[in-house]
């Protein structure tokens, strides 16, 4: 599915919103700390304003492909769960089920899933997540995530 | 000369050659995967360099970079899908050659052209970088501010196709760069009451988030990639001698393409896709038989592949001399340099000359290694890639990015920032805002801020302290170039708009 969107207008509005958020969260900064961000905010607001104007006056709608948006939202949700799981449960214990979930979600678009697919994916997920965890902690000597489980 | 000999000796150590070999192989593998860019390849390899010495880490990333740009040619030729944006022009004649049963000839030609391009780029970098770094010493705070603005303007006008959107991206990057402790005033800024932001947003976190996560979300959205019927490599052998003769048969095309690649590579943000497209276009324009282009003319492959490999080392010129990345992957290399306490400029070549020159020489060795790796291992890598399903690739890459981001500072908040920036990057990509200007803004933020504030402090005696930014002749030259760039970028857009 495709939708028409005035990218200049929305891009400008995004920039303006960002400038407003930062402007109203400046707090009480001294001159040396504030002089450069102030200049950047003014430039950001000006460029955003120009984009909005151009979008309103001569904006040409761009076709945007939004097919598969549901999958993207699911993907983002899996990433968020991944982060939460790593923080509160553990890296390998979170990564294996979420690797499987993401892989099967993508594979299901090719056709119905079989038990064989699930078993193979679990094996691949365990090898990949466990393998990288081992490489990072034991070979590269990078301190592991501080979580209750692996 | 002593430094060059010492640098060559340092990188000719057996373990260094193994690092280069592994780097080129890994780069070739990632580069040949459609959708995975050179920036992504370097970002993925980054955590593996943390435990290495500075020179080893840089050598590894340089080799990965060289391998990735070359690897893009494989899928461009065999399945008409450029592995990296730098190989777009390679599809024009490479794939028609494959369809005519000349796949191995096309790959062989691409390999030789890539090697020559890579070596030419390295030679230019070795010769030009030290004197340019010397020249950079003349740049005071005001000039450095304008250099940063010039970099942002150039990438703004080149990277997104819309000057305003490019400038917006650059300004957003500058703004993100102001989060955390102010480099001049020392105060905490824009933390929104969240203490983890006091340390600012790490460049590497932003790079991984803005470049890797949007690509993964795109792959999730598209589902399993449907590839055109791949060309069959059969059991025939690569044609090294014939390919060498083909490439050298048109020396003008080769020299012109290398020159174009070198000139464009120096422009911050121009990138390999622009380089190869311009070189391809010029090859066609200068050819006596332009009608054969697009139908399997090896000259097109030579132009594209030699120019985009020149860019690998060529884009390091502004990086190593001024700290301004010539292309997005260079930003990762800058990040590694900063991690090891190395700052671009003349000091890099005087105080750490062995390291700087060793890094450059290693890229030349990486270019030479494309021949054995590409011609001997290419077939195996290509077959492996065809069998690697995207539904395993995406979560695997996600695991590497999560571990890599965490490993940077042992901080789980960085992972959240990386994922958050990635999602934002995916959304704003839909609005036509590219990641490259944002990242360059983030990189140049510190340079621009220091130049800006120091200039204003130096101009406090003036009625309007900001005027200090405009009084030096060198600043005026840079301002003139910025105005020209903006004018050049804005003019054709207006003309097109009127014509439409």
Automatic annotation (TrEMBL), chain A:
Residues forming coiled coils: none
DUF1468 domain residues: 13-142
Name recorded for this polypeptide: DUF1468 domain-containing protein
Transmembrane regions listed in the UniProt entry: 7-25, 31-53, 62-82, 88-106, 118-136
Keyword set, alphabetical order: Membrane, Transmembrane, Transmembrane helix
TrEMBL record, chain B:
UniProt keyword annotation of Transmembrane present: yes
Record keywords: Membrane, Transmembrane, Transmembrane helix
Domain DUF112 intervals: 17-440
UniProt keyword annotation of Membrane present: yes
Spans traversing the lipid bilayer: 17-46, 58-79, 106-129, 135-155, 167-185, 197-218, 319-342, 354-378, 390-409, 415-448, 469-491
Protein's name in the database: C4-dicarboxylate ABC transporter permease
UniProt source species: Roseinatronobacter bogoriensis subsp. barguzinensis
Lineage: Bacteria, Pseudomonadati, Pseudomonadota, Alphaproteobacteria, Rhodobacterales
């Amino acid at each position: 599915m495709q939708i028409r969107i005035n990218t200049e207008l929305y891009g400008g509005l995004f920039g303006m919103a960002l400038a407003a958020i930062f402007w109203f969260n400046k707090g009480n900064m001294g001159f040396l700390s504030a002089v450069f961000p102030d200049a950047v905010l003014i430039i950001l607001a000006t460029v955003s304003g120009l984009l909005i104007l151009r979008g309103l006056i001569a904006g040409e709608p761009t076709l945007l492909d939004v097919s598969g948006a549901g999958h993207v939202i699911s993907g983002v949700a899996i990433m968020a769960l991944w982060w939460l799981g790593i923080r509160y449960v553990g890296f390998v214990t979170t990564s294996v089920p979420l690797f499987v979930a993401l892989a099967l979600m993508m594979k299901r678009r090719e056709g119905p899933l079989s038990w064989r697919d699930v078993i193979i994916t679990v094996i691949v997920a365990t090898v990949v997540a466990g393998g990288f965890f081992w490489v990072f902690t034991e070979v590269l000597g990078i301190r592991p995530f501080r979580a209750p489980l692996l | 000369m002593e430094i060059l000999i010492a640098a060559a000796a340092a990188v000719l150590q057996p373990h260094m050659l193994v690092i280069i070999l592994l780097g080129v192989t890994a780069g070739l593998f990632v580069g040949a995967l459609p959708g995975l860019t050179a920036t992504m390849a370097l970002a993925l390899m980054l955590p593996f360099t943390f435990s290495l010495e500075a020179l080893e880490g840089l050598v590894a990333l340089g080799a990965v970079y060289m391998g990735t740009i070359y690897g893009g040619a494989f899928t461009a030729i065999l399945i008409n899908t450029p592995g990296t944006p730098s190989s777009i022009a390679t599809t024009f004649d490479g794939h028609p050659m494959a369809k005519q049963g000349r796949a191995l000839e096309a790959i062989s030609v691409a390999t030789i052209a890539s090697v020559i391009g890579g070596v030419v780029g390295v030679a230019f970098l070795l010769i030009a970088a030290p004197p340019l770094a010397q020249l950079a010493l003349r740049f005071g705070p005001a000039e450095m501010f304008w250099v940063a603005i010039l970099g942002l303007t150039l990438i703004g006008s080149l990277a997104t196709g819309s000057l305003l959107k490019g400038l917006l991206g650059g300004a957003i990057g500058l703004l993100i760069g102001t989060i955390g402790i102010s480099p001049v005033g020392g105060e905490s800024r824009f933390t929104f009451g969240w203490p983890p932001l006091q340390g600012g947003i790490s460049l590497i976190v932003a790079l991984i988030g803005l470049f890797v996560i949007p690509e993964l979300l795109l792959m999730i959205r598209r589902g399993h990639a449907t590839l055109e019927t791949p060309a069959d490599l059969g059991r025939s052998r690569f044609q090294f001698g014939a390919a060498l003769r083909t490439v050298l048969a048109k020396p003008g095309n080769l020299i012109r393409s290398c020159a174009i690649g070198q000139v464009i590579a120096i422009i911050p943000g121009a990138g390999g896709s622009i380089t190869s497209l311009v070189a391809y276009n010029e090859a066609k324009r200068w050819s006596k038989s332009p009608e054969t282009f697009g139908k399997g003319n090896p000259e097109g492959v030579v132009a594209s592949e030699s120019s985009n490999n020149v860019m690998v080392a060529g884009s390091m010129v502004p990086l190593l001399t001024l700290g301004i990345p010539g292309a997005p992957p260079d930003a990762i290399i800058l990040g590694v340099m900063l991690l090891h306490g190395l700052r671009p400029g003349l000091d890099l070549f005087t105080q750490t000359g062995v390291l700087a020159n060793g890094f450059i020489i290693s890229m030349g060795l990486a270019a030479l290694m494309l021949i054995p790796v590409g011609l001997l291992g290419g077939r195996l890598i290509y077959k492996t890639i065809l069998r690697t399903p995207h539904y395993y690739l995406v979560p695997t890459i996600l695991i590497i990015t999560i571990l890599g981001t965490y490993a940077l500072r042992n901080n789980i908040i960085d992972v959240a920032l990386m994922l958050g920036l990635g999602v934002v990057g995916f959304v704003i990509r839909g609005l036509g805002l590219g990641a490259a200007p944002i990242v360059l803004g983030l990189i140049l933020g510190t340079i621009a801020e220091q130049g800006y504030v120091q200039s204003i402090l130096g101009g406090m005696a003036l009625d309007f302290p900001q005027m200090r930014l405009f009084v030096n002749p060198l600043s005026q030259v840079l301002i003139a170039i910025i105005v020209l760039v903006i004018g050049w970028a804005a003019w054709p857009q207006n003309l097109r708009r009127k014509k439409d």
